[in-house]
Structures are given as C-alpha cells and as structure tokens.
Amino acid sequence: MQTAHRPTETPATAWLRSRKAEFSLHAYDYVEHGGAAWGAEALGLDVHEVVKTLVMQNEAAKPLVVLMHGDRQVSTKNLARAIGAKSVQPCVPEVAQRHSGYQVGGTSPFALRKAMPVYVEASVLDLERIYINGGRRGLLLGMRPALLTELLQAVAVHCSLP
C-alpha cells in the first residue's frame, strides 16, 4: 500500500495518514479530459465505484463540494433543494482550484485549502469500497465510503440525475 519514500504523498494522503485512515493507493497514467471513466478503465475498476469530487457554489457564491458516482451527473436543482439553496452551479476551473487548493482533475475532498461543506450522493455510501481522487492527477485512493461521513462529516443527499 505505501512505499518507504512515498512518491504519491499529497496533502490528501498526509491528512488521511494523520487520522490513521485505512486506504490504498492506485496510480494510473492521467489523460486530459478522461475523467472518472478513464481512471476506472485504466485501473480495471467499475466507474460507478469511482467517485468524482466536484467544487460547486450556491447563489451567494459560497463554495461546496459534491461527491458523485463517476458514471452519474449532479442534478443542480435536486442538490439545491436538498441543501436549502436557491441554486447551485459548478465553479469555473480557476475558482475551483482557488477554493480547493488542487488542480482540476486532481481534486480530493481531503485537506482542502478552504473549509467547505461536503455533500455525497447517498447511494455512494451503499458501496462496499470507493475510489476517490488522492490529490493529484492520476491517483485514486481506495477506501470504505464511511470515511466520507466519519472524517469529512459529508452529508448524504439525493442529487444524481436519473
């Protein structure tokens, strides 16, 4: 799982280690605009178990994080309703990067630059294991989905498009 020199150390992996969280490292060759589907294919995973980390904002431009299955999209209407916002929209890449501290394509929900509420599609928590970005492009972390609620206090919502 870990090597002595930790070539895949990121703020996210350091944060998880400091909390004694159990996770596995899964590196792959990143492809621009490949997204969760490419990460899943490269590692032989089910894309439904790969979780995207999306930085969004409400109508007051307050940032928030949404964790969604790799094969699904967020319904911004359902999300806004679920969190009591008037509207929600994705942040542009530059703004997302400024809020998270991570490069788009390598955004992890762990060790974010700015404290933001985290929402997770409820059905993600039903999976046995998930694979989520480890804080750099081409690195997924395998873990129990319960870590999202235990460590991030992620709030379960129903916000995926059918």
TrEMBL record:
Family annotation (InterPro entries): Prolyl-tRNA_editing_YbaK/EbsC, YbaK/aa-tRNA-synt-asso_dom_sf, YbaK/aa-tRNA-synth-assoc-dom
Keyword Repeat listed: no
Pfam families referenced in this protein's UniProt entry, alphabetically: tRNA_edit
Keywords per UniProt: Aminoacyl-tRNA synthetase, Ligase, Lyase, Protein biosynthesis
Keyword Lipid metabolism in annotation: no
Any one biological process term the GO annotation gives: translation
PANTHER family: CYS-TRNA(PRO)_CYS-TRNA(CYS) DEACYLASE YBAK, CYTOPLASMIC PROTEIN
Family (UniProt): Belongs to the prolyl-tRNA editing family. YbaK/EbsC subfamily.
Protein name: Cys-tRNA(Pro)/Cys-tRNA(Cys) deacylase
